[in-house]
Amino acid sequence: MSYGEQIALRGHADIEGVAAAASVEVRSSGDPLFLERLRRGDAAAFEQLVAERSGEVYALLYRLTSEPEEARDLTQETFLRAFQAIGRFRGEADLKTWIYRIAINQARNRWRWWRRRRRDVTVSLDAPVGEQEQP
């Protein structure tokens, strides 16, 4: 069973969008002229980068979070961070690797944020104020 079929069985309709975005042929990652355009802040180059990589980044983040909405938010945050930090990209690694590292760091930061706020603890609406269910 493919990854897409597994997601579909879980009832997530987002896999079609991921498959469509991931099917875009990636040509620009190693192109020095493309990297220079990104560093100069060329909006068209950044749009191309998002079009080429967003499906892969979303799929990675979905695997890490198992939540479609969270994966979409983190994908957007990943590309925002990449746009802000592209001037510091040294080129020692592939652009894809750099973006994946940003995505993983974003997921880790979000997990820590939720953990600090004890997202896993639920409060019954029937419980008196000040009482919480213990995990």
Rg on CA atoms, Å: 18 Å
Into which percentage range does the β-strand content fall? under 5%
CATH architecture: Orthogonal Bundle
**Count of discrete structural domains:** 1
Briefly note the structural class of the backbone. mainly alpha
Mean pLDDT rating: 78
DSSP helix fraction:
55-70%
Looking at this structure, what is the CATH superfamily? Answer: RNA polymerase sigma factor, region 2, helix turn helix motif
Number of strands: 0
For the record, the CATH class is: Mainly Alpha
- The helix tally amounts to 6
Query: What is the straight-line distance between the termini?
Result: 34 Å
Low-confidence parts: 1-26
Q: How would you sum up the major sheet?
A: none
CATH topology: Rna Polymerase Sigma Factor, Chain: A
Secondary-structure element order, as H and E?
Answer: HHHHHH
- Sum up the overall morphology in one term: elongated
Comma- or semicolon-separated keywords:
135 residues, mainly alpha, Rna Polymerase Sigma Factor, Chain: A, 0% strand, elongated, disordered N terminus
